[in-house]
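FORM 12-B: Structure-to-Sequence Request
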């Protein structure tokens, strides 16, 4: 139930965009971001602004070129997105925020509710049986793998 105390806790109206990280979230996420690479010139971009821009893209689903003008340039955010995806930094950030918010909600890390009907269970059973069947793999000349179950 929404009470005034809960509304104040979840209010993001004071942020520039609702997707921006609060100071408490940044304190949790900031240490997980890898330092700048050694050698070369110093990092000149504000990493918090990059993370906020990335959160904006991920929360709104907008195009890279539609990032607001007060964020770093879209190519900078995209470069960091690719880099952090490759080295799994985004997975660590997501896990840290996920665990923190689950702790705040006083929930156990499991599904809260589940509902399944007979048709869903039958489809799930069929899916897992299909996964356990022997498969053959076909590779075309562009190194794309096509998996097909054996009859």
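FORM 12-B RESPONSE
SEQUENCE OUT:
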């Amino acid at each position: 139930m929404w009470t005034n105390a809960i509304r104040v806790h979840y209010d993001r109206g004071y942020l520039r965009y609702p997707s921006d990280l609060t100071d408490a979230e940044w304190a949790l996420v900031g240490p997980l971001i890898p330092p700048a690479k050694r050698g070369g010139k110093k990092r000149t971009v504000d990493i918090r602004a990059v993370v906020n821009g990335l959160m904006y893209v991920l929360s709104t689903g907008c195009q890279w070129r539609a990032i607001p003008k007060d964020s770093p340039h879209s190519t900078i955010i995209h470069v960091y997105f690719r880099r952090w995806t490759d080295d799994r930094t985004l997975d660590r950030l997501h896990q840290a925020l996920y665990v923190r918010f689950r702790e705040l909600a006083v929930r156990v890390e499991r599904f809260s509710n589940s509902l399944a009907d007979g048709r869903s269970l039958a489809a799930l059973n069929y899916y897992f049986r299909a996964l356990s069947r022997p498969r053959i793999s076909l590779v075309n000349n562009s190194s794309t793998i096509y998996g097909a179950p054996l009859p």
